Every structure is written in C-alpha cells, then in structure tokens.
Amino acid sequence: MFDISLISSAYAEGGSASTEAAMGNVLFLVLLFAIFYFLLIRPQQKQAKQHKEMIAHLQRGDKVVTGGGIVGKIHRVEDEYAVIEVGEIDLGNKQFSPVRMRVQRATIGAVVVKSAAAADSTDNGSTADKAS
User: Fold this and answer.
1) 41 with 91, same domain?
2) DSSP per-residue codes, the chain
3) How many domains does the chain have?
C-alpha cells in the first residue's frame, strides 16, 4: 500500500534543508556577535582603559569633576582616595578656610584642567622639538 522508496526520499530531501538552515543560523549568530563586539564591547573597553589611565595620572592641582558633578581641585592623592578642595568658608575678618572632601579616585569622571606643573613639562618638550 505504501511505497517505501517515497518515504526514504522525503527524509533525504528534508535533511539537506535542515543542514542549510542550521548553517544559516550559526552564520547569523556569528555576524550578530561581531556587530555587538565592534559597536558595544570594544568601545566600552577603550573607554574603561582611558579612565584607568586618567585615574593613575592624577596629581595635585588638577581640576576635576566627580561622577556626582562636584567640581574641585585636587589637594592630595592617596592610594584609593583623593582629597579635593571644593570651595572656601568665610571665617570672618577676611579669613577663609578651604573646604576639602575625600572622594574615591574611581569616582572622578574627568580632569577639566591639568595642573601647571604637568602643562609646563609637556610644553617644554614640545618647544624643544620645534626648535630642532
């Protein structure tokens, strides 16, 4: 009643189509991962590396902005913390006392202005190169 040759040929044809579909799915996943890597993961890694370098090169006199938006000037740099001056308190009789805050170095979001000592050392090197 049933022809066995028809059933076996139907299975054979279905197997090649499923293999092509599986290869298409794998190729799609690889392409999707590559897009995510180049558009999301890689730029984030570069930004994290730049932030780590900036934190490592903090020094006294740099004007910084913390992650919370506090703007101040670095007074002292410690291992995990930085002490920043954020303003002054009027003590009366024309006397002022600086207001200092201790913040974690990792929370410093950006260096607005480098200190004069760092700027002088980079300027001296660039003028010496131009004079040569």
Assistant:
1) no
2) ---HHHHHHHHHHHHHHHHHHHHHHHHHHHHHHHHHIIIIIHHHHHHHHHHHHHHHT--TT-EEEETT--EEEEEEE-SSEEEEEEEEEEEETTEEEEEEEEEEGGGEEEEEE--HHHHHHHHHHHHHHHH-
3) 2
Q: What is the pLDDT of residues 29-82, one digit of tens each?
A: 999 999 999 999 999 999 999 999 999 999 999 999 999 999 999 999 999 999
Domain ranges, residue 68: 59-122
Whole-model pTM: value is 0.64
Phi, psi of 13 (to 5 degrees): -70, -40
**Which of 56, 77, 95 represents a domain boundary (last residue)?**
56
The structure tokens listed for 24 are 């298409």
